[in-house]
């Protein structure tokens, strides 16, 4: 069911042009090459499938995306929503004044009627489901217009939705009946509706304190790669005082230093697990995450995980992702 477009299958073509045609199957985007970059270094892969009027894709962007201007959705309005599930790497969805980091615990729903940018912080893989606006018309009062909607997927209905989406990756390969694919699309819309309604009904119960705590943790996540991250910069980003930051973290049995370290180590696992970064030395991963020394990173990682970063990477390489292994060519001519 999935068809795959891969730059490796078009070695004679301009790889940036090939990639732009790939992405235009999802949404109108533009990639600008920076002066001095070599387009031959760019590699990417996109997998596509249809569930009735829903389009499912797996996007794998490699290191070259870090050397180019962020892909920006064109100004032409699109009556669609994009449901995005991060799978590996680090990206940011930017819409208006809102920056939403793509982390494994979240599902992002974006209204493409408003300009959107995708910022690649590292090579990344994500699943995107394009949904016509008309299919979510009954939910418009629950969805923000011009900013992304973040849905928790660690538990409850959100977890069911995430598992259902990820199950499509393997299942659609063996389904050729369009009627069944249409039924799967209906099931997906129904589950998404349940998740959005559930989030809306519980959202008003979230205390201001928990919202502030979430703002603090989001600010930390966005500054993890900065070696100079501090309580001042995080407090400013969360629009609270430094004293309140300390007080709130202590009340929830944690500390600023502890949160920064644990979140850096969790992101390190993602980077070490990513095959697209297998060529990078572990010391480079440490540097990317703001660690001042390789030894400090290794000691902290082994203490938290029970294995060294090098051993963790070796264990991860045995678990190949089927998403990146399948290579069914879709002719672009």
Automatic annotation (TrEMBL):
Residues 214-315 form the HTH araC/xylS-type domain. It holds the Pfam family AraC_binding_2. SUPFAM superfamilies: Homeodomain-like (SSF46689). SMART domains: HTH_ARAC. The keyword Transmembrane does not apply. Keywords: DNA-binding, Transcription, Transcription regulation. This is AraC family transcriptional regulator. The lineage of its organism: Bacteria, Pseudomonadati, Pseudomonadota, Gammaproteobacteria, Oceanospirillales.
């Amino acid at each position: 069911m999935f068809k795959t477009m891969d730059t490796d299958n078009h070695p004679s073509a301009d790889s940036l042009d090939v990639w732009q045609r790939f992405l235009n199957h999802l949404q109108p985007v533009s990639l600008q090459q920076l002066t001095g970059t070599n387009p031959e270094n760019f590699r990417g892969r996109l997998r596509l499938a249809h569930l009735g009027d829903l389009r499912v894709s797996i996007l794998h962007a490699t290191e070259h995306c870090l050397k180019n201007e962020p892909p920006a959705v064109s100004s032409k309005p699109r009556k669609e929503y994009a449901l995005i599930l991060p799978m590996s790497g680090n990206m940011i969805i930017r819409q208006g004044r809102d920056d939403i980091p793509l982390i494994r615990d979240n599902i992002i729903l974006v209204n493409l009627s408003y300009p959107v940018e995708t910022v690649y912080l590292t090579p990344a893989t994500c699943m995107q489901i394009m949904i016509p606006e008309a299919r979510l018309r009954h939910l418009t009062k629950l969805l923000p217009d011009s900013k992304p909607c973040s849905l928790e997927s660690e538990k409850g209905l959100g977890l069911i939705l995430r598992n259902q989406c990820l199950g499509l990756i393997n299942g659609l390969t063996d389904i050729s009946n369009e009627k069944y694919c249409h039924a799967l699309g209906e099931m997906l819309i129904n589950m998404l509706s349940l998740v959005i309604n559930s989030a809306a009904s519980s959202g008003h119960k979230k205390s201001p304190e928990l919202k502030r705590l979430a703002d603090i943790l989001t600010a930390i996540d966005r500054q993890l790669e900065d070696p100079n991250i501090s309580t001042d910069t995080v407090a400013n980003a969360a629009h609270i005082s430094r004293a309140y930051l300390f007080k709130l973290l202590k009340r929830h049995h944690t500390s600023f230093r502890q949160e920064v370290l644990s979140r850096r180590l969790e992101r390190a696992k993602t980077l070490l697990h990513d095959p697209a970064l297998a060529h990078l030395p572990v010391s480079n991963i440490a540097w990317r995450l703001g660690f001042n020394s390789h030894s400090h990173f290794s000691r902290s990682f082994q203490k938290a995980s029970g294995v060294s970063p090098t051993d963790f990477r070796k264990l991860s390489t045995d678990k190949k992702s089927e998403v990146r292994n399948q290579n069914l060519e879709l002719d672009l001519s």
